[in-house]
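Page 37, continued from 36.
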């Protein structure tokens, strides 16, 4: 743990808490957009893959294919954002936002997710700090309580790489 972050136990996993003035949120968004462009459809704007949600465990707003912005304003208004870290589990190695590839073996790994689910980072802004947690966007209801929800979750082998990637945007 660095001096600039604080860890808390929430949802059984370590939450990354970074004071807003210590986090390069614009650079984080730009890197997320580059990743989304790489893994997404050329017909959908990369920002449309960033989901806006009222709170943990709820379904996100429908994104326009032309994309959207105002992410910091949404956080200030109390919404949460979900940033994809790895694409759906197709059984192959998945491209990850950190530039590496990971795979999930349903028979070996404790954490698995469906071929229509996405792991990523659930970000909120509370009391002047970004709170960043691993989460699953359950698009079809295979590994979640309610189809279409985004839930803070222990994401197994994805936890450490997602956290390390988010920590790259903490100002030195």
């Amino acid at each position: 743990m660095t001096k600039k972050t604080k860890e808390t136990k929430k949802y059984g996993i370590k939450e990354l808490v970074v004071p807003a003035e210590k986090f390069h949120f614009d650079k984080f968004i730009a890197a997320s957009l580059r990743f989304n462009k790489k893994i997404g459809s050329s017909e959908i704007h990369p920002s449309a893959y960033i989901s806006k949600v009222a709170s943990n465990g709820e379904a996100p707003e429908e994104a326009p294919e032309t994309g959207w912005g105002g992410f910091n304003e949404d956080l200030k208004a109390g919404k949460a954002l979900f940033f994809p870290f790895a694409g759906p589990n197709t059984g192959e190695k998945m491209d990850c936002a950190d530039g590496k590839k990971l795979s999930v073996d349903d028979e070996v790994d404790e954490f698995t997710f469906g071929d229509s689910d996405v792991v990523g980072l659930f970000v909120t802004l509370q009391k002047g700090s970004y709170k960043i947690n691993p989460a699953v966007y359950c698009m079809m209801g295979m590994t979640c309580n309610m189809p279409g929800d985004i839930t803070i979750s222990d994401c197994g082998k994805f936890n450490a790489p997602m956290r390390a990637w988010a920590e790259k945007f903490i100002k030195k």
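Residues 1-12 have pLDDT under 50 and may be disordered. Flag for discussion at group meeting. The beta strands are 6-10, 13-19, 51-53, 80-86, 94-95, 101-102, 117-126, 129-138, 149-152.
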